[in-house]
Amino acid sequence: MLRKSFESEIQNMKNEILAFGSMVEQNLLESVDALKTRDVNRSHKVVEVDKIINKKRFELENEVMILIATQQPMAKDLRLLSSFFEIISELERMGDYAKGIGVINIRMGSEELLKPLVDIPRMAEKSADMAHRALVAFINEDVEAAKSIPAEDDEVDALYNQIYRELITYIISDPKAIEKANWLLWVAHNLERFADRVINICERTLFVVNGRLGEIEDAL
Q: Of these four, 18, 44, 163, 220, which has the most CB atoms within 10 Å of its CB?
């Protein structure tokens, strides 16, 4: 009976983490769409949602601490609960990147975008999709899915490099464009870092299932 109760609490926590991740993913997409449309009001909302994300992080961590204290887990259960901590923290940091993009749009004020956004929204969509699938793999303890996702980070990196090269050409042709170019470069940087943290979530799936902690490439 006690084991059934523990398993139910674990499933509830997994559901909460999945919902937490969805909140982070949606705020990332919203931050980029607000930038694309230069909607500063929406960016202010992105910043406000980040405050909710920060608060939720501590609420979830407290729930995990209560589980550890009351259930005294061992072996795989302890690996799972410790991974909850790590993933909750990763998601909060990922949320910071969305907030950062919102802040950039706010700071730009009435400035026009240097160019229409094409690759930056692609980066955002790819990164959010990777994050969602990484969390689903973790929840389902799906090692094969977790192993397959990190390779997709190369696509995000390629988009980042493409954006970087394009922005450099704008600066070379017009040095006065450097500030506008820097705004977009920082946005792309935030998206690239967001995707990098997805790999950490994938590594946690392997740790829970196999007890192996380290670079995911070592487990391939």
A: 163
For the chain, the three-class secondary structure string (H helix, E strand, C coil) is CHHHHHHHHHHHHHHHHHHHHHHHHHHHHHHHHHHHCCCHHHHHHHHHHHHHHHHHHHHHHHHHHHHHHHHCCCHHHHHHHHHHHHHHHHHHHHHHHHHHHHHHHHHHCCCCCCCCCCHHHHHHHHHHHHHHHHHHHHHHCCHHHHHHCHHHHHHHHHHHHHHHHHHHHHHHHCHHHHHHHHHHHHHHHHHHHHHHHHHHHHHHHHHHHHCCCCCHHHHC
Place of tokens 């699938």: 133
Longest Cα separation, the chain: 71
Domain extents in the chain: 2-219
For residue 182, with 0-12 CB atoms within 10 Å meaning exposed, 13-18 middle and 19 or more buried, which class applies?
A: middle
Which tokens in the block code for residue 213?
Answer: 């902690």
Is residue 8 classed exposed, middle or buried when 0-12, 13-18 and 19+ CB atoms within 10 A define those classes? exposed
CB 87 within 8 A of CB 19: no
Tell if the pTM clears 0.90, that is, is over it.
yes
What pLDDT is recorded for position 7? 85
pLDDT along the chain (220 residues), means of 10: 75 96 98 97 98 98 92 86 96 98 96 95 98 97 95 96 96 95 98 97 94 64
